[in-house]
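Below is a complete specimen:
___
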Amino acid sequence: MKLYSTQTAPNPERVLCFLREKNITDLEIVPIDLFKGEHRAKDYRVKSPFAQVPALELDDGRVLTESRAICRYLEGVYPEPNLFGTDPTETAFIEMWDRRVEMMWLMPLANWLRHGHPAFAALEKQIEELAPRGEKSFRRFAKFLDKELQTRDFMAGDRFSIADITAFATIGFARVARWKPEPEETPNLHAWRQRMFDRPCGAKS
C-alpha cells in the first residue's frame, strides 16, 4: 500500500498520527507538496479525483481519499491497539466526540486559516469574512473542551481514541495561527496536549 501525504495539513496528520499509534511501518509514504500544486497534477487526480490529501492506494489499485475512511480501514487491517471502540456504547461516544472535534473545532480553524492567512491565498480564493467567524468558533470550542477535560483524561472517555488524534492534529494545525492551549486560559486542554506529546502520536509533532 502507498499513502500519499503531506506535512502541512491536519487531515494527513490525522492519518500519520494513527500510523504512529498503531506502529504501522510497512506503508510506503509518498510526499505531496500542496504549495507546488502536486495534489492538482493530472496523474494524482486519477487517484484522487477531488485533489484530496491524504490518499491510501490499496494493493489492488483502489484508492481511499477520506482521512477517517483511511483510519477505519487501517483499524480493520491492524486491529490493535483499538482506537475506534470495543462495544456499541464506547464506539458511539468515540464517534460523537471525533465528529464534534472535526466539525466544531477543526473546520472553524480551517476557515480561519484558509481565508485569513496569507500563505493560503495561493491555494484558493479567500473570503475575508469567514476568517474572524472561524476564529471565534474555534476559540469558543477550545474553552468548551477545556471544561469537558476537567472530568476525564481523554476526548471521548477514559482511554485514548481516534477523537484524541483528531484533536491533536487540530492543535498542530493551529500553530499556523500561532495558537496553542495556554495553562492560564485552558489549563485542562493544555495538560491534555502535554500528555499527547508523551504518546507515539506526539513523537514527531
